Amino acid sequence: MKHLDDEQLSLMALGEPALTPAEADHLAFCSDCAGTLAALERTVHAATIDPAEVELATPGPHNWAAIHQALGLSPDQAQDPLGRQSSWGSSTTTTAGSAAPAGTAPEAPEPAATPPTPLRKRVRERRPGSTVRRWVAMAAAAGIMLGAAAVWAAYNFLGQGPEAVPSPTPTASQAVVVAQAPLQPLESYTANGTALVEKLPDGSRRLVVQLSDGQVSGFREVWVISPDLTKLVSLGVLDGEPGVFAIPEGLDLAEYPIVDVSNEPFDGNPGHSSDSIARGELAAEN
Amino acid sequence: MTPAGPHAWDAALDRAFAAGQEAALAEAYRRLSPLVYTLALRSLGERAAADDVTQEVFIRAWKSRASYRPEAARLPAWLVGITRNAIADALSARSRRQELEHAAGQFAGDGLAAAPPAADVEAVADRITLEEELERLGDPQKAIMKLAFYEDLTHDEISSRLQLPLGTVKSHIRRSLTRMRTRLEVGHEAS
To answer: Which of A5, A6, A8, A10 should we substitute to test contact with B (largest number of B Cβ atoms within 10 Å)?
Structure first.
């Protein structure tokens, strides 16, 4: 599939849902597109950050004293400006006729204690879907793991029932990605990839696992595991790329959000070998 | 203490600074020194070094006020630029010093100070840079991006609000955002 165009990525960075499932698939696998998106998201973040929410350290009074002395400022300015009310507003009003242009009084700056113009602070909350999608894209690019609880709250909220599953494309034959997980290598492995949960038009679900090649001593098996790692269900052997696995009806992925690919020795033991190659947590896609 | 970006900034202050009014320097210090200091603290990790940078920035700014052109940049953006340069200078001076100290078998053990979380402080500085860039975009790009950023409108909503074709809005968003991204990346490479 061709790369996503910058227009789509720009809209996504602004929190607008702009992708078809096929495009979302592409984004999950394409580091170029995910990298561009991450850079645009950083730009949007910087453009929209509310300075009032960022705590800053305050320089000590000796700093102004040093500046005052080095520049030979007038004694009027000896007091640390950080300890004063806005000297600017007061000086422009008290020294009328100085170089300050006329007509600025109504727009005199507010005291420092007043927060700057409120900006959109809660964009992500207002668009509940974008947090998760954004995270998925970032995680795919940067390899971040996230705690299960928050993600699963979102999954349950967004992913339940056919109405909640977005079908942005008119072609009903297409599978819709309802969740995905970036797969990160565990110790001593380097393979990484992505697992997608797709919902087909007939309501069935399947797990599509794509993992970069890595040497394993046995064979690779795909599991879904509970957050506390105490319960697990095997979905099958990962052979070709990508591996496609039916998800049994009735298997609640909210109980098994972790996708795990293990290296299994040919020893006849059907249990998990405890030797995991890569792992990731499913996050809802919307 | 919260920083004030250009959105709450009085252009008269820029002109007064350029004209050499000391009160304007004091006001710029009052509003921007916490940001300057915090950026330095988080890059350099030591209060003494952050003090030096803070003093250096405002001293340098005042001495070169003749080269400051209010019509080309607002004071916050100009000061953030000077701050990035001063931090870069301090870092390279430090690495030269450390090489010498290592050569002499000494190791600096300055008390390190805890700085606020880095990413957001950088983002605040970046926001000041971006607001500058936003002003330069001109309309309708500026109006479009402000609606997208600060009123959280979708491109659909912007299109009907400004009565511009959808495709036009989308391509302005793409070009403007790319330009802002480039502006940030160039700024960081330079520092």
So the answer is: A10
Q: Does B25 touch chain A (CB under 8 A)?
A: yes
Q: What is the pLDDT of residues B28-74, one digit of tens each?
A: 999 899 999 999 998 888 899 999 999 999 999 999 999 998 888 88
SS3 letters for B44-100? HCCHHHHHHHHHHHHHHHHHCHHHCCCCCCCHHHHHHHHHHHHHHHHHHHHHHHHHH
End-to-end CA distance of chain A: 21
The closest alpha carbon to B74, from B9, B143, B139, B3, belongs to B9
- B136 in Cβ contact with B12 (< 8 Å): no
Does the structure's ipTM exceed the value 0.85? Answer: no
Give the per-residue pLDDT at B16: 92
Distance CA A234, CA B38 (A): 51
Structure tokens at A238: 């990962």
Cβ atoms within 10 A of the Cβ of A125, count? 9
Total CB pairs under 8 A between chain A and B? 213
CB contact under 8 A, A43 and B5: no
Higher pLDDT, A172 or A185: A185
Q: What does pTM read for this prediction?
A: 0.53
Low-confidence ranges of chain B (pLDDT < 70): 1-8, 101-119, 187-191
Which residue has tokens 């350290």?
A57
SS3 A235: strand
Please tell me whether residue A63 adopts helix, strand or coil conformation: helix
Question: Residue B8 has what pLDDT?
Answer: 60
